[in-house]
Every structure is written in C-alpha cells, then in structure tokens.
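go over my protein:
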Amino acid sequence: MTNSCPKCRFDNPDSTLFCGKCGTKLISPENILATETMETPREELSTGSTFAGRYQIIEELGGGGMGKVYKVLDKEINAKIALKLIRPEIAVDKNTIERFRNELKVARDVSHKNICRMYDLGREAGNYFLTMEYVSGEDLKNMIRMSGQLGVGTAVSIAKQVCEGLAEAQWRQSTGTNPTTFIPWPTIGIRKRDFLSITRRACGMSM
C-alpha cells in the first residue's frame, strides 16, 4: 500500500512520514477525510467566478501556508466579506478540520470593536473554506514599513487597542499574533483579523 504525496503526487510507502521526492510531510491514511465527490479540490479561485453558489470572487487579498484569501461578494446577503480557501493538502487532514470546527465555535462568540468577526466553515466540492468579516486597508506591518518610525502617541494608541483586542481573544482561548493580522481603521482604530489560532501557521498571510 502506498501513500501519495499531496504536493507532487509521488507514491511513497505507507509507513513513510515525508515524501521521498519533495520532502513534504505526508498525512497518514487514517487521518484522511473521506471524499464525497470525485471533483479535484481547487487551490485558487478566479476573479469574477462564483464559488459555492453564492460567493462572487472580487479579488485575491493574500496567501500563505494555509491557503489563499479573497474579497468576495456574498450574493445571498449582498455584502462584501473575506473568504479563505484552505489548501487541499491541509483540508484532507480530519484532525486539522476538527480543530477548525472547535475554534470557530469559540471565535463566533467574540464580539469586540478591535476583532474581526468569524462567520463560518464551509465545504464545497472537496474544498474547505472559512468566511469572515472583510476590513479594507493595509495591515499594521505594511503600514509601519511604509510610514517609518511611529510617533509615541500613535504607537501607544495602537498598542492600547491591540491589547484590548487580545485581552478578549485570550479570554476566549485564542493564541498567537503577528503584525499582518492587524489593520489600522480610520474610524474605529485597530482591528485584529484572523481570530483562529490554527490559521496563524501562515505567518505571512493576509487576512
């Protein structure tokens, strides 16, 4: 029996932990979710297309180890939200998806002016995806990079808002931060996005 690499599709012995061709960590067969469709999961979505029957893709916002994030129009409610398409090789791991479900239950209970809302975990034709509040603007890391050194007053204001958001998130058992998960908002202030700690494996990922 062989274990096919999710990245290069090389067939490895089922006892192998890493792909002998590309070095990718392999998922053990017992942790692979049963596929309900023969359709090949997508790794990206094209601008203008409609995903899962309701999300019209407006633009790609960023990408990283967990997948790609898109600005979409939810046609059911006629509102713009963010959608994170989880990479197929991650989505087939039932333990990872179960962690998503458990953390989403916690995240949906959080309502704070400095934290973006998480909406749902969905599945479409073998793809798992997350939907969340869309907040426009550059992330904090890029803002600092573009503006240079921050003034003392600005830095204190940002730090205060970050701490207020983190205090609520930590109380709800969320962990992990990096500057790309914060967005300066002109009217409200700092918004923390990407509440789920599991999604922060992709440290450079927007949204």
The chain has three domains: 1-32, 36-133, 140-201. The two ends are 39 Å apart (CA to CA).
